[in-house]
Amino acid sequence: MSLTKKFQDLFSLRGQTVLITGARRGLGSAIAHQCAEAGAHVVINDLDADQAEAKARELREAGYEASSAAFDVTDRQAVRQAVDRILAHCGAIDGVVSNAGNQNRKPYETYEEHEWRAILDTHVGGAFNVTQAVMPSMVARGRGRVVMVSSTVASHTKGTLAPYASAKGALSALTRELAQEFGSRGINTNAVAPGYLKTEFTNAIVDDPDFTRWLSARVPLGRWGKPEDVAPAVLFLLSDAGRFVNGHILTIDGGLTAAL
Ligand SMILES: NC(=O)c1ccc[n+]([C@@H]2O[C@H](COP(=O)([O-])OP(=O)(O)OC[C@H]3O[C@@H](n4cnc5c(N)ncnc54)[C@H](O)[C@@H]3O)[C@@H](O)[C@H]2O)c1
Question: Which helix (H) or strand (E) holds 8?
Fold first, then answer.
């Protein structure tokens, strides 16, 4: 008899339901594809119902299990109602990926209070709303996985990102806090901290040749990251392979933050 699980079983999410916020495009979409390929029923969240459902339909047409749940992660009541509906429909939520995010780039002294709040509310308030809504059902079952999407800007920055960097720093701290509070109740909480990824989120700097030149020279692997570079790490944290990882911030940045 083998003492270790088969390789595929370690990374399988068969029979599990995973809710991914902000998943209609970009990194969330890549995470949804990765989890669906691993056998999960993925629930695609985003702001717009048609766009979220279009992504879920795309996955179903590719032979995977997927549904959609549109809500604004900053709307506490909408989050709770949606989570209740998912639990009623799917029976359980095994994993949640708090990925929804927004960003603004400008000098610190020009930020308006509403701009500051919009970013903190989405990243940190959204993670608070979604995890608080999902975790009681995980506690009741004695198992669950939470993955936050933080960023390398939580620890290293080039400036002009004050609210975003503050939000990502808070998410890294929240990750450790939840890992401590919920670990003994069977819930692992971790985060990924991607470096620069080519998505619509970063269009403005992707289109800036000076920035791409700087990035290619600065990142030891010499290129922009892709959402598909990060999604497998999220699968690892959601799957049985990551069962003893808790409170970890997994940097995925091509070596950016390792190099001087
Ligand atoms: N692109 C990068 O370089 C990079 C690097 C590190 C971390 N991240 C993080 O990865 C995550 C995904 O980023 P991306 O690059 O795929 O960006 P993206 O803009 O392509 O995707 C973000 C998605 O979140 C959704 N969203 C925004 N506010 C929402 C809300 N209130 N409720 C529900 N959904 C909402 C958007 O509609 C969008 O579909 C974000 O948390 C971002 O901060 C991105």
Answer: helix 7-11
